[in-house]
Amino acid sequence: MYIGRIVAVGRSGGRSFAAYRVSSRSFPNRRAEIRGRSILVSPLNPADLARNPYIAYNCIRVLDDTAVVTNGTQTDMIAERIEDGQKPFDAIALCLVAFGYERDELDTPRLAGAVKGEMAYLGIAKRGEIRVKEFRLQEGDALMVATYEKTEFEPVDLSGNSAVSLARGAFDLSFERPVCAAAALELPGPGEPGQKEGEGHEKEGVGSGFELAVYNPM
Q1: Can you tell me the mean pLDDT for 197-204?
Q2: What are the DSSP calls for the chain, one per residue?
Q3: Distance between CA atoms of 65 and 108, rounded to whole angstroms?
Q4: Are residues 16 and 117 in contact, defined by beta-carbon separation less than 8 angstroms?
Q5: What percent of the chain stands above pLDDT 90?
Q6: Residue 109 predicted with pLDDT over 80
Q7: Which residues lie below 8 Å from residue 9, measured CB to CB, with a gap of 6+?
Q8: pLDDT, position 188
Q9: Are the CB atoms for 96 and 74 separated by under 8 Å?
Q10: What tens digit of pLDDT does each residue of 84-101 get?
């Protein structure tokens, strides 16, 4: 099944996480890259942006206690509103209303998620519909929303003890056309194990209160 881009939030090993996967039929030549406290998705060939301006954006941004994950440029606006003191639910709702769905040939929905402590948030802006929901995460919970087919907020089998394992887990979800993936996981508290080293094409870094990782198979 092809479901397009995937936004996921959850809690694993006592820490909350946000994860993202690019799945694409039209623009598979993309990669994810950690840039400070953000993760950027961009095409390998910049000329592709002339064909579709929606294919480059920060998919994850992290603040001191909050991680934001989306499938477009709304990531930045949501993060900035939260940084200015707005609640994640309100920031997601207002930004999805402001942006709406993507005006491409498929009317691609805009997705958004966030985690803050044990609270998680998911939102979607489709043509004719905008929904945002708040969740209290229990250990082992993980929820997702995607651009196609799975546009409801539903459980997903995703867990890991590092941002690297979560990014790889998101990439390995059993849906068609995976391209790259990214994740942000709350940093461990005092006395808890630290980060693990990445392997292969996995890369990781630290952004404020979260560890960040990407997975690029190419």
Answers
A1: 47
A2: -----EEEEEEETTEEEEEEEEE-SS---EEEEEETTEEEEEESSTTHHHH-GGG-EEEEEE-SSEEEEESSTHHHHHHHHHHTT--HHHHHHHHHHHH-S--STT-PPEEEEEEETTEEEEEEEETTEEEEEEEEPPTT-EEEEESSS--S-EE-----SSHHHHHHHHHTSS-S-EEEEEEEEEPP-TTS-------TTEEEEEETTEEEEEE---
A3: 30
A4: yes
A5: 87
A6: yes
A7: 16, 17, 18, 19, 69, 113, 114, 115, 120, 121, 122, 135, 137, 142, 143, 144
A8: 81
A9: yes
A10: 999 999 999 999 999 999
At residue 206 the predicted structure's pLDDT band, cuts being 50, 70 and 90, is low
- Domains, the chain, in order of start with CATH, read 6-215 (3.60.20.20)
Kindly state the tokens that stand for 108: 């691609």
Q: Which amino acid would we find at residue 91?
A: A
Mean pLDDT of the chain: 92
Contact 25, 175 (CB under 8 A): no
Q: Which amino acid is at 194?
A: G
Cα dihedral 75→123→16→4 (10° resolution): -80
